[in-house]
């Protein structure tokens, strides 16, 4: 390693956190600390094993495995948050011991909308990079990650109105240079909210419908003549909310996403997998945020509201059973 290593903390070391830990680690330019929970023992003993259809088999050496950010006892250049967005408001205080607002960049790699807001409230002046990933990965055993061929990510700033744009851009480009050196597929985009909301339209439809029906996407679409119109209506409501918030989406996205899913092999979704594993699902960040914004803006969100309320009840049952 030449020069001072970039200090990187990965918070939320599941499938996606481990995949991007692998990407960043293989640059040879970082010192990697991870906060692990259920996979702490496995990762502490063996690091991370990753089998990727694109990158082959790798053993990722982790410099430090900790249970909490406070235990690390240091500040970081980048804190990559790839935890499930279940209780997003509780996380900024968890990472706070590792944040120096003048120098730490917070990187969020999650599905959902509004993910950045709790971080901005706690860290009004920190640089925040928001990422939308289409990478497909799972962690079948603690510390063992399987990555499919799906690999793509869009990254961009969640701008700090009071910050220095040149400094924020420099931090974004520095992170991008690590992703390039780590040989992953990604693009830097000018307004990440467009990609974030496009993905929310996708997730609000496929994650909800595959979870509620326990069908895959194609079986759902073929289930009756009403399935495609309902899917389109649901997507249309999320798009209307995004448009009212000033995010540049339009209804042609519906055709694009329907065409995209039909060209893919049938899939379930991370929400359905969480449901099947009895784990809390990302209902609020994927559906609750658009529903709340829709109500505030007096937009008809009756379809997503119905689905949101039902999934919230199912989530409550899962959470009660898992505590
Ligand atoms: N997997 C995929 O293919 C894709 C996932 N995504 C998104 O990426 C994000 C991460 O998903 P994924 O990696 O699949 O999820 P996983 O369930 O594989 O991993 C989540 C990890 O975060 C940890 N975690 C959860 N909540 C907290 C918390 N509050 N504090 C600290 N750690 C926490 C979990 O620990 P523990 O095990 O102890 O619960 C687990 O290690 C999600 O937003 C998801 O929607 C997006 C595209 C594809
Ligand atoms: C992996 C992918 C892209 C599939 O829709 C996803 O985002 C999810 O399941 O949550």
Characterize the structure shown.
- The protein is of the alpha/beta class and 323 residues long.
- It folds into 2 domains: 6-190, Rossmann fold; 193-322, N-(1-d-carboxylethyl)-l-norvaline Dehydrogenase, domain 2 (Orthogonal Bundle), CATH 1.10.1040.
- Helices cover 46% and strands 18% of the residues.
- It has 13 helices and 12 strands.
- It has an 8-stranded mixed β-sheet. Strands 4-3-10-9 form a 4-stranded mixed β-sheet.
- Strand 9 and strand 10 (144-147) form a beta hairpin.
- Helix 9 packs across helix 12.
- It is globular, with a radius of gyration of 19 Å.
- It starts with 5 loop residues before the first strand and ends with a helix.
- The mean pLDDT is 97.
- Bound molecules: NADPH dihydro-nicotinamide-adenine-dinucleotide phosphate and ketopantoate.
């Amino acid at each position: 390693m030449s020069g001072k290593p970039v200090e990187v903390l990965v918070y939320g070391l599941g499938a996606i956190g481990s995949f991007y830990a692998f990407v960043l680690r293989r640059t040879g330019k970082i010192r990697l600390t991870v906060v692990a929970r259920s996979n702490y023992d496995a990762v502490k003993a063996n690091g991370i094993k990753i089998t990727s259809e694109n990158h082959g088999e790798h053993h990722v050496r982790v410099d430090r495995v900790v249970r909490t950010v406070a235990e690390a006892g240091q500040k970081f250049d980048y804190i990559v948050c790839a935890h499930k967005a279940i209780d997003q408001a509780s996380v900024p205080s968890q990472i706070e011991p590792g944040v120096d607002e003048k120098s730490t960049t917070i990187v969020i790699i999650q599905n959902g909308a509004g993910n950045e807001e709790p971080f901005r409230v706690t860290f009004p002046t920190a640089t925040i990079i928001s990422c939308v990933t289409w990478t497909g990965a799972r962690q079948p055993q603690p510390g063992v990650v399987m990555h499919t061929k799906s690999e793509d990510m869009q990254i961009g700033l969640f701008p700090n109105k009071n910050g220095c744009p040149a400094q924020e851009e420099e931090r974004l480009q520095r992170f991008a240079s690590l992703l390039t050196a780590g040989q992953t597929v990604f693009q830097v985009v000018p307004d990440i909210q467009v990609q974030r909301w496009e993905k929310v339209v996708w997730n609000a439809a496929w994650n909800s419908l595959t979870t509620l029906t326990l069908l895959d996407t194609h079986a759902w679409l073929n289930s009756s003549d009403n399935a495609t119109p309902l899917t389109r209506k649901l997507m249309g409501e999320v798009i209307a909310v995004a448009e009212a918030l000033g995010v540049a989406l339009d209804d042609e996205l519906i055709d694009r996403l329907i065409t995209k899913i039909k060209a893919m092999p049938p899939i379930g979704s991370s929400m359905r997998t969480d449901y099947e594993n009895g784990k809390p699902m990302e209902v609020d960040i994927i559906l609750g945020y658009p529903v709340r914004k829709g109500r505030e803006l007096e937009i008809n969100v009756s379809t997503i509201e119905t689905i949101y309320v039902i999934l919230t009840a199912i989530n409550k049952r899962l959470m009660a059973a898992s505590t």
